[in-house]
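quick q for whoever's on today - can somebody do inverse folding on this one?? i tried earlier but teh output was garbage lol. tokens:
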């Protein structure tokens, strides 16, 4: 059995183009980089080609960053938001098909359309779409995109969302899809083989605490469905993308039976994140 690919996310440094952060990680001998967020990059295909010749890369969610910011939402009922979302995802799939590791991951949908400035903070109260209808719409759209990805030879990974108590206090209910194990499994049961779960441990911890659940029990339930991990820790109240060591709650779940692992740590220096990646490497290759 091959060991999972190991990546470090560029998502914590949004003031620079992700490719520049990737170059810095390459100089620090990172084994792989997941491009996420950052500044708009012109001539992206050529830059990715050069970068991919040096280091293993893959792309995630809001990459490549568009000139005009928007929020990806495949469950949107707004035609303009949906059109932008589908076009972005198809473009990302096309770029992923040019890379050595042909994968693309993105977040689950929402019951509302937040403004891009609200992500990671307070999302104002809006009228929420019906949950089951939105989930079924999301399923249908992911299935359609899976066909596009299959033709491009690309695997898709859908990431669980994060909900905190503030989101529910403002909106009266959970405004995000795929924050609890039952809904995640329901979704996955409708997915073809080239769509897998990207389990974000930081998201799962906060969402579980918000819903009054055990995050370890939630992960126990979801482990048979996990295709890849985004790894970070937090205090259970806010998704802070904090670092961790081998005493972290999810350590025992890391194994070789997954496709890739991405460190999504934003609160430490790149050199410290590299050290954590070496710790992870020993765990998943041991």
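ok took a stab at it. sequence:
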């Amino acid at each position: 059995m091959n060991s999972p690919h190991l990546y470090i996310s560029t998502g914590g440094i949004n003031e620079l183009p992700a490719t520049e952060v990737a170059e810095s990680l390459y100089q620090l001998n990172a084994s792989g980089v997941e491009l996420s967020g950052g500044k708009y990059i012109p001539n992206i295909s050529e830059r990715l080609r050069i970068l991919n010749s040096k280091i293993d890369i893959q792309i995630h969610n809001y990459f490549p960053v568009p000139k005009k910011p928007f929020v990806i939402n495949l469950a949107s009922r707004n035609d303009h938001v949906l059109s932008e979302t589908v076009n972005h995802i198809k473009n990302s799939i096309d770029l992923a098909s040019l890379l050595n590791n042909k994968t693309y991951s993105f977040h689950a949908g929402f019951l509302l359309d937040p403004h891009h400035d609200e992500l990671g903070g307070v999302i104002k109260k809006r009228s929420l779409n019906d949950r089951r209808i939105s989930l079924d719409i999301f399923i249908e759209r992911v299935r359609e995109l899976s066909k596009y990805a299959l033709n491009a030879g690309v695997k898709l990974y859908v990431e669980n969302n994060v909900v905190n108590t503030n989101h529910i206090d403002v909106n009266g209910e959970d405004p995000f899809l795929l924050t609890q194990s039952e809904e995640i499994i329901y979704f996955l049961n409708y997915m073809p083989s080239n769509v897998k779960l990207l389990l974000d441990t930081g998201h799962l911890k906060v969402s579980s605490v918000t819903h009054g659940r055990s995050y370890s029990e939630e992960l126990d339930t979801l482990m048979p469905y996990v295709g890849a991990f985004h790894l970070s820790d937090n205090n259970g109240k806010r998704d802070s993308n904090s670092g961790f060591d081998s005493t972290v709650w999810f350590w025992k779940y890391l194994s070789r039976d997954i496709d890739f692992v991405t460190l999504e740590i934003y609160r430490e220096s790149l050199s410290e994140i590299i050290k954590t990646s070496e710790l992870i490497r020993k765990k998943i290759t041991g």
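fwiw The longest helix spans residues 131-152. also DSSP finds nine helices and eight strands in the chain. so keep that in mind when u check it
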